[in-house]
Amino acid sequence: MSESKLETKVMENMGIQIESNPAEGRLSELKVRSWPKWGCPPSKFPWTYTATETCYLLEGRVKVYPDGYNDYVEIGPGDLVVFPKGMKCTWEVSEAVDKHYSFA
């Protein structure tokens, strides 16, 4: 099987890119485990991305409601997520979050 067939599919929804359960090689390539960590308890809060953020969720479950949409994107453990610069949204954390993150 070719390497490209083993790659994880990246989905984009409402401007948010989600790569579910990327291979460890992909995480190593990005140096995800060396990124800073951030966490929060269950909560709901507005957020604006002043820079593109890539994050990798270790734990937790979040519904992200981008401004201008009547829908949400749900992310959870094992998701590698890219939020675009300028996105305004509301985070609804239903299970405490622990994630690595990097701003570009």
UniProtKB/TrEMBL annotation:
InterPro entries given in the database record: RmlC-like_jellyroll, RmlC_Cupin_sf, UGlyAH_Cupin_dom
Q: Which residues form the (S)-ureidoglycine aminohydrolase cupin domain?
A: 27-101
Q: Which domain of life is it from?
A: Eukaryota
Task: Check the record and name the Pfam families matching this protein.
Answer: Cupin_3 (PF05899)
Q: What name is this protein filed under?
A: (S)-ureidoglycine aminohydrolase cupin domain-containing protein
Q: Which organism is it from?
A: Picea sitchensis
